[in-house]
Amino acid sequence: MNEEYTEKHQRLSLYDKFKFSCHKGLSCFNTCCNDVNIFLTPYDVLRMRRGIGLSSGEFLERYTIALLGEEGLPLVVLKMIEDENKSCPFVLSDGCGIYQDRPWSCRMYPIFPASSKEEGFLIEGKPSCLGFKEGKEWTVKEWKKDQGIDIYDKMNESYKAVTFHDYFQKGNKLDSGKAKMLYKACYDMDEFKRFIFETRFFDIYDIEKEGIEKIKEDEEELLNFGYRWVRSNLFGEDTLKLKDKEMDKLLQAKRGKQ
Ligand code: SF4
Ligand code: SF4
Predict the structure, then answer these.
(1) Is residue 31 within 6 Å of ligand 1 at its C-beta?
(2) What residue numbers bound the domain in which 119 lies?
(3) For the chain, what is the domain count?
(4) Hey, whose CA ends up nearest to atom 2 of ligand 1?
(5) Distance from the CA of 63 to the center of ligand 1, in angstroms?
(6) Quick check: 91 and 30 in contact, CB under 8 A?
(7) I need a surface site. Which of 86, 111, 207, 230 has the fewest CB within 10 A?
(8) Average pLDDT rounded to a whole number, residues 35-61
């Protein structure tokens, strides 16, 4: 996180109160949407690209930078415009142009989880942010509700089951093939959808017809299915079941190696 953001470090529980309000009348309005590092979760990408009507591939290409974390996990960052302010590509004179689908961290600001392992929240804001001088008071719980964060937390929780998996705690890293697999299933969802619907995928995996329809029609279901596929393929979890004949083939192949 940018050093400027560490000015305030008040630690809060879900029911603690803080004062904050952000609105157009403030002289700092929009200044926080420049030159900022925003890491996007798969659900952020789903919402943003669906909101502006782009395919996942087009959105990722146009608006993001893909990096690799230490464990080989893909990190997706929102690409700022190359103007003098390094503006967010979505900021307009009257505020966020994708407000309904803005990313998790833009919603949470100025509250952030203390850490991935601890309960509680930190309040962190730029010194130039005038929102703290406004009188409106919230508990963290009220703020999260107001900002529509619950669905993001729910979807991100499923992604954490991938990124905080024991596999990494034991010191393993993803090779580039596995990192690409994860990126496709979690971020480039249109590509993943083509992969599962235009190959023999459902001849191999035992998925109920009803489940297949849901994955086809509902992008949140598709993303959750992507997480299950990743956990099955990368970590050997039983999040997906092979059809009996495929399982037989697998066992025969294993026996053949012994
Ligand atoms: S009050 Fe803070 S969050 Fe709102 S526009 Fe100003 S700097 Fe940004
Ligand atoms: S996505 Fe919206 S709220 Fe977030 S930095 Fe860009 S313009 Fe600001």
Answers:
(1) yes
(2) 3-36+80-152
(3) 2
(4) 129
(5) 23
(6) yes
(7) 86
(8) 97
